[in-house]
Amino acid sequence: DGRVVMRTEGSEKAAMEIVDLDVDFNDIVLDPTGASPLEQIKASGTLTAAEIHTEGVTATEARGGISIGDSMIVLSDLALATPNAQLSLPSFEADFTRSPFTYKVEVGGSVDVNGMMNATSDGYGPASLTLQGSGTGPDLEGFVGDGTLRLESGTIPSSPWLALVEKLLGASFINGAAYQATDIGLSVAEGRLDIAPFELTSESFKLGSAGWVDLQGPISLRLEVFAPRDLISIGGVTGDVLDALTDENGWLTVSFDI
Predict the structure, then answer these.
(1) Nearest CA to 105 among 60, 136, 63, 148?
(2) Contact 135/103 with Cβ under 8 angstroms?
(3) How does residue 79 score in pLDDT terms, banded at 50, 70 and 90?
(4) What is the CA radius of gyration of the chain?
(5) Which of 161, 153, 145 has the alpha carbon at shortest distance from 219?
(6) Longest pairwise C-alpha distance within the chain
(7) CA distances from 110 to 83, 168, 178, 257 (A)
(8) Cβ-proximal residues to 190 (8 Å cutoff; 6+ apart), any chain
(9) What is the pTM of this model?
(10) Where do runs of H (alpha helix) occur along 65-108?
């Protein structure tokens, strides 16, 4: 029933808080000649925590293996849940010989894209995440990593953003359309998640997107709709203008900045 709060030196705001922490150690070896507490003990065991809070992210139901020794804390097969994902950390190694401490981490798991996109029904296929990275200190700004989100095939469900897009396009061909599986490249640095350009491909159109999400809240995304000209009718824009923007294959590209 422990509580751990980590703060960057000079900051009153907690960078990380762990609530209801329980650790059970076995095979404990004590070495009183060690220069610091983490050098005076070696042990392995299990760890559970009800909640782990960081800036912009809250995880719950954490459970996994832990070992300490030689100023290192190593977590193995740590499972935890977030509002839209079930994640696992196959490995996490923190080195406390440095100040601030440094760490390396691997992350995997399943992601609920329907929940992330505020969809009103299920439609997006299963999604799996793989991410590798390293960092310094407890702040998310100190983490650098890259990975991939694999989105399996499915159908594009209704959502508030989709309703707005279809209203602006004067069309309703996106909602419910089947799309092919795709890989989405991700990278994290300085507290920002960058999303590499990707496309959702359907039989009659494509949706493209790219941008970034700041873990403090701000976002900057571009959504592009590639579709046959005869499917699109934008209010306030004449047909001649749309025809002039249509490519030689009869397709029109409409971009939205979010």
Answers:
(1) 136
(2) yes
(3) very high
(4) 23
(5) 161
(6) 83
(7) 12, 33, 21, 28
(8) 141
(9) 0.86
(10) none
